[in-house]
Amino acid sequence: MFGTALHLHLVEEAEPADLPPDRRTLAACEEEEKGTDGFTVGLLLPSRTVPRWERSDRPLIEKRLKQLCPHCTMEYANAQNDAMRQRQQMSSMVTKGVRVLILDATDARALRSSIQEAREAGVPVIAYDRLAEGPISGYVSFDGAQVGRLQGEALLKAMGDKANGGNVVMMNGDPTSPNAALYRGGALSVVSGKVKVGRSYGTPGWSTDSAHANMSAAMAALGPDRIDGVLAANDAIAAGVISALKSAGVKELPPVTGQDADLDAVQRIVRGEQYMTVYKSFKAEADAAAAMAVALGRGGDLREVATTTADSPTTRRIPSVLLTPSAVTVDDINPTLLKDGMYTVDEICTPELRPACDEAGLTR
């Protein structure tokens, strides 16, 4: 219904009465093609806590969607870490007549019934970045276990001699996210038997404030000078960890991992406060999601888009694209983030950071 109304409105605009017959025929053909090819894709992102969703994923998906389907439109909603709100947003989009949904679920299990309802309404759902339960039609993400392995490997390298029996605090992601378990498992596969995990915490909502509180608790239990490394699941968590360490007066910060290559995290790496982050090409992820959405919206399948399959607790062999992440320390900023156009030198190198940037070889 939505597409039909839009189509009729555009036809009325395109064919004024004084248009010559040959021109009117061409315009009618163009509008007929637009009505057939154009549809609405719903994009549902989980929060504003993590900067990437609004800064990168949303505009990149919308841009690629327009490139692949010029007559398509995008309906957008952000759940702000509220699963009930996201369920309502999904229901609203289905009612409005979206043809495909791209969903990054706030809670992989809680959205299961909403995904089932969308399927029953004939609206396929693409799981974006994390794999939700229910009848998912496609899945786009990164290899989560590899993210954890990269974090674990980097942490051991940064710890040096302390990697043999040193104390590590694990600051895991949101317990409701299947990705958090993948990151944790990947990291443990590398560090187990080499370091002691003194404390391990989940971080609801990937919240910086929660990470700060958990790190303060870890220091109270272990002693601030007896923490040799911190496996922080992403950059928002790393920010809370580093803030807590500095608030406790820790002079020599232990190596802290991260993920997402947030701008402030990259600046912390240049500053020497955070050891590393994991870079995931949001453009590649967004491109794959948009390609899946257009293929499904046009009534096709995903065989030409998907490169593998994935299993959820409820659904097997979901057509999937799983991309490869990269570890980024200060020495890797040039050949990854700058080379890919993620940031410019001017964005990273504030006047206060200019000396550190020069030392790191980050020049215009």
Describe this structure in words.
With 364 residues, the protein is of the alpha/beta class. It folds into 2 domains: 2-143 and 281-323, Response regulator (Rossmann fold, 3-Layer(aba) Sandwich); 144-256, Response regulator (Rossmann fold, 3-Layer(aba) Sandwich). 46% of the residues lie in helices and 15% in strands. The chain is built from 14 helices and 12 strands. The chain has helices at 2-14, 21-37, 52-68, 83-96, 112-120, 144-159, 178-191, 208-222, 235-247, 263-271, 282-297, 334-338, 345-348, 354-360, and strands at residues 40-45, 73-78, 100-103, 125-128, 138-142, 167-171, 196-201, 229-232, 277-279, 308-310, 318-323, 326-328. It has a 7-stranded mixed sheet with strand order 2-1-3-4-5-11-10, with helices on both faces. It has a 3-stranded parallel sheet with strand order 7-6-8, with helices on both faces. Helix 8 crosses helix 9. The chain is globular.
